[in-house]
Design brief:
Blueprint (H helix, E strand, L loop, with lengths): L1 H5 L18 H13 L4 H8 L3 H8 L10
Helix pairs in contact: 3-4
């Protein structure tokens, strides 16, 4: 893998730059704000944004999008 980075075959593919990402930075900010308010379940937030509830859980636990701080 290091060889791939050295030769420029990889780039910053995290966050909204990932080819399979459905979420943009604004979506993640909204998710984190909704989670802080606590009015909606993770499942309802996921349904609103058409993503898997596990995606919301990973954002909440800081496993993904940890660079976005609210």
């Amino acid at each position: 893998i290091r060889d791939g980075w050295v030769k420029g075959r990889f780039s910053n593919m995290g966050g909204e730059n990932a080819p399979t990402s459905k979420l943009k930075l604004g979506d993640v900010i909204k998710i984190k704000e909704l989670l802080l308010l606590g009015d909606l379940t993770q499942r309802k937030i996921a349904k609103m944004l058409d993503v898997n509830p596990e995606t919301i859980s990973k954002i909440k636990r800081g496993l993904t999008w940890r660079c976005v701080i609210i």
